[in-house]
Amino acid sequence: MQTTRRTHVCRIQNHSQVANALNRHGWSASKLWNVANYYARQQWDETGEVPDETQLKRELKTHPTYNGLHSQSSQKVLEELSEAFSSWFGSDDDRDNPPGYRKRNYYDSDDNRVHEEHPRSTVTWKQRGIRHDTKHDKLRLSKGSAHKQGHDFILCEYDAPPEIELTNIQQVRAVRNTTKDRWDLHVVCKHEIATESPGDAVAGVDLGICNPAAVALPNDALLYPGNRLREDKHYFQQEEYRTEGDHGPSKNAQWARDKLAKRKDHFLHALSKDIVERCVDHDVGTLVVGDPSGVADSDWGRHGNKRLDNWAYKRLLNLIDYKARERGIEVEQVDERGTSSECSVCSHEDDADRVERGLWTCSRCGSVAHGDINGADNIRQQSLTVTPPLGQVDSGTGCLAQPRVIHFSRTHGFQPRAPAG
């Protein structure tokens, strides 16, 4: 039976009783991050290399700050820091900075620093640090040894969303809700899926930057432009740059960052859901998604590399995967290299046939197609024993050349517009 992971946000019923303990662990997570960050920067200055998570864990497991959290929670902080350094180290944009320290400085009227304060970071408990009392709806979260003062755990009484039963818990994250000035629990559970497959049809998905997704269905083709996402990114980044404070991000700058992150997350969730729902409508039982991981290994220049860094294809891959499996659709990930330079009708391969970014004309069979849809249909055919392409009949005017364009609106979601020319 297939399984999927879902995150459920739960309200803490006895918040006043556990807030101080959660605060201490949140501060400990920030302190451990800062200590590990300082060590990583030292190693970078001395060796020119950023230590990986294995090195960080080996060097810091005896540091006093490591004992502020349960051992697996401390490991999670170091894993996140290592991932942040890897992302920065791999960036080609000189404007990008390494991961910063988690602290907030306070200044007096003469612009002199008065004191600093650590923010309360998210704390993650893995399975070994969690005990679940299903009878009384309570979660026992193991404390770090530095905070065990009479009790070895934080006992949180939770209120789960309606019709949600917390079973097979994989992780629990204590997340500070700054707007409401309280902690919430984000509980990650593994659920079994008993949904039957919608059918035997196969669809292919080509992920991109300008067009986040192109979908080749058995008798249809869909194109999802990223105009709205780019507009939001441009607007909120301008707001962030204009409101950056003299001593770090201002409240408006932080608001702009958070707003952009929320809108991007909403867009990706809505996009993956729309793709899966349309696959269900077309009786798709197998969804073949092109994995563009190899694209990031090449040098695309300063501007191109920056766009790649901001490309959330892994996030979209994961969203499509779990949403499809919940509807009984099998998901296959295949290497997409070569799919954009091959004709989906006759399999002739020539990079020059992609005349423009959105236009494909085959120099052998004369087929005309939208470039992204041509790639999506090549991806789809990788899972077929017999490969009837979308454009086999009337390729100059069919859905291969003129896919349905699905535009995004924050009020109405994804809606089809006029065909692409």
Q: How does this model look, in words?
A:
The radius of gyration is 25 Å and the shape is globular. Strand 11 (213-217) and strand 12 form a beta hairpin. The protein has helices at 15-47, 53-60, 71-89, 227-242, 251-281, 301-309, 313-326, 371-381; strands spanning 2-12, 104-107, 113-117, 123-126, 130-133, 138-142, 153-159, 169-177, 182-193, 201-207, 213-217, 220-224, 244-245, 248-249, 284-291, 330-335, 354-356, 359-361, 368-369, 404-409, 413-416. The strands form 5 sheets. Strands 4-8-9-1-7-6-5 form a 7-stranded antiparallel sheet. A 7-stranded mixed sheet has the order 16-15-10-11-12-20-21. It has 421 residues and is α+β, with helices and mostly antiparallel strands. The protein folds into 2 domains: 1-194, no CATH class; 201-416, YqgF/RNase H-like domain (Nucleotidyltransferase, domain 5, 2-Layer Sandwich).
